[in-house]
Design brief:
It is a single chain. 0% of the residues lie in helices and 55% in strands. Strand 1 and strand 2 form a beta hairpin.
Amino acid sequence: MTSLSTHVLDTERGAPAQGVRVELHRDGELVAEGQTDVDGRIANLLPGLEPGVYRLVFHPPSPFFRRVELEIELDEGHTHVPLLVSSYACVSYRGS
């Protein structure tokens, strides 16, 4: 089974980014979407994903970054993809 979680941290405020819209696309189609909770997290964006290439799209609370898009390849198991964002910088990594 393949699963995906994410969280968004507002590094400028030093706090989780609540209410950030996150979309998951595969082969040009939107397959899931959600909003980060009070802790800036989405625990499982779409249960029962198939392994493959996806686009993870964040709409962060930044006056500069209107959209942050990552192309990721999901294998069997769980993948966690955090986004750290401020007004003029962002970074992502494969979490554990």
